[in-house]
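Readers of this paper often ask what the protein records in our data store actually look like. Such a record has a labelled line for the sequence and another for the backbone structure tokens. Nothing more is needed to write down the fold, since each code stands for a local backbone conformation. The record that follows is passed on verbatim for readers who wish to inspect the format.
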Amino acid sequence: MHRFFIPQPYAAEMVIRDVDAKHISKVLRMQPGDKIQIVSDDGVTAIAEITSLQADGVRIQCLEKLAESHEPSVKITLAQGLAKGEKMDFIIQKAVEMGVSSIVPVAMEHSVVRLEGVKAEKKVERWQKIAEAAAKQSKRDIIPQVQPVQTVKEMLASNDLRHKIIAYECEDRLGLKTALRGCGTLQELLLIIGPEGGISEAELQQARANGAVPVSLGRRILRAETAGVVALAAILYETGDLGE
């Protein structure tokens, strides 16, 4: 069943407008009587029935609220070093599917890509659309926010979570599982992943000074677009989100 996010508080009768309305009528070719899932602006998930297709939008009647949550028990913010080409698109799509709450694109010393000003804003707009599409496809209860492109210093200052982990290829003593078990009850986590060129020594020390724990993701060196997905899967498994 298709899921749509509606930017308005939950009500018995609602209207889906703009791009989603066109998608319902023109692409999916749905008709009155067809059922969809909706998520309202105040976090209510429900099954709804299309009642009419009109010029100003698709009108729906909400039939049943859904109590089951599709969100992980731990809120994960992924701070991802800027990767080149379509790699960031892939990372954002998969991170949202996995369950991250927020994504921070980080301009790091070894990032090949340089984004500033209008160019950075347009990229973030594109990534937010990718996040929204992935949230719909994976039936998330929220659309994770893609934050503006930030430096390491800005990212650490604006995401001051209690628990922070930084994946570092030269770390050979502390593994991710051991680090997670040392966190106790985990509610929020900042996960820092480097770009293709890796994390510099200065960035590592800056992160450690702000409470981030360097961890190993195993004996093999992972690509920038692989490391975050692997780490997220391990975190969600360890916290019981991938099933018993």
In short: Residues 117-137 form the longest helix (21 residues). DSSP finds seven helices and twelve strands in the chain.
